[in-house]
């Protein structure tokens, strides 16, 4: 049985380095993993008055079906993009009983600058902690000057790609060794 990993890009841009990293992961992840995808741009702005629109239900069902998530976030103004936060807000409901409860998450970040999105990564871990998801503890994967390391929609820096995939492989292995534990769901 294949391990299912939902791979999310925190960017809407078609030529984004975040999406290129996600595409690289999905391409190189290996035959024993089924990468799942969801376009978070299709989600409406979070508003509890909307109830659970069909697209939100589909998103939450995809999160639920995944053994873990891989999130690649760019850094916008020292934090995560609004579109990624919006998706997380939808997935976090109902509070403390959501599809994110105890869900393992691997995080990588990109930036056009020297910091590689490390501040966004820190904020994302804090947000995930608040919804009781499990950020995977590993060496942080940050990709500085990311626009220079992407060509034709894929990550081409071999050193960073090797480091990234070592982290993703360790994440997948951890999912196989420690099945998801419920915190009351």
TrEMBL record:
SUPFAM superfamilies, A to Z: Flavoproteins
Molecular functions (GO terms): FMN binding; oxidoreductase activity
Recorded superkingdom: Bacteria
Family annotation (InterPro entries): Flavoprotein-like_sf, FMN_Rdtase-like_dom, NAD(P)H-dep_reductase
GO cellular component, one term: cytosol
A Pfam family: FMN_red
Residues of the NADPH-dependent FMN reductase-like domain: 3-147
PANTHER family registered for this protein in UniProt: CHROMATE REDUCTASE (PTHR30543), NAD(P)H-DEPENDENT FMN REDUCTASE LOT6 (PTHR30543:SF21)
Protein name, UniProt field: NAD(P)H-dependent oxidoreductase
Naturally occurring in which organism (per UniProt): Nitratireductor mangrovi
């Amino acid at each position: 049985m294949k391990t299912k990993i939902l791979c999310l890009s925190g960017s809407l841009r078609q030529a984004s380095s975040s999406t290129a990293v996600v595409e690289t992961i999905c391409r190189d992840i290996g035959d024993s993993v089924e990468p799942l995808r969801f376009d978070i741009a299709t989600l409406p702005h979070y508003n509890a008055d909307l109830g659970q629109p069909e697209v939100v239900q589909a998103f939450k069902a995809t999160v639920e079906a995944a053994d873990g998530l891989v999130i690649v976030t760019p850094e916008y103004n020292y934090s995560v993009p609004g579109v990624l936060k919006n998706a997380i807000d939808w997935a976090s409901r109902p509070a403390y009983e959501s599809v994110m409860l105890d869900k393992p998450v691997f995080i990588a970040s990109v930036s056009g600058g020297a910091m590689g999105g490390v501040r966004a990564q820190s904020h994302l871990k804090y947000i995930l902690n608040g919804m009781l998801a499990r950020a995977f503890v590993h060496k942080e994967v940050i990709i500085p000057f990311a626009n220079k390391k992407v060509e034709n929609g894929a990550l081409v820096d071999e050193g960073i790609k090797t480091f990234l995939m070592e982290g993703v492989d360790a994440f997948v292995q951890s999912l196989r060794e420690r099945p998801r534990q419920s915190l009351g769901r």
